[in-house]
Amino acid sequence: MGFRAAVITFPGSNCDRDMAVAIEKVSGTAPLRLWHGDSELPDGLDLIALPGGFSYGDYLRSGAMAARSRIMQSVVRAADKGVPVLGVCNGFQVLTEAGLLPGALMRNAGQNFICRTVSLTVENNQSLFTGAYDAGEIVRIPVAHHDGNYFADDDTLDRLENEGRVALRYAEPCNGSRNDIAGILNRAGNVLGMMPHPERAIEPELGSSDGRRLFESAVGALIGA
Amino acid sequence: MKVRVLVSLKPGVLDPQGRAVHHALEGLGFNEVRDVRIGRVIELDLADDADDEAIDRMCRQLLANLVIENYSFERLGGGESA
Question: Are A7 and A51 in contact (CB under 8 A)?
Answer without folding.
Answer: yes
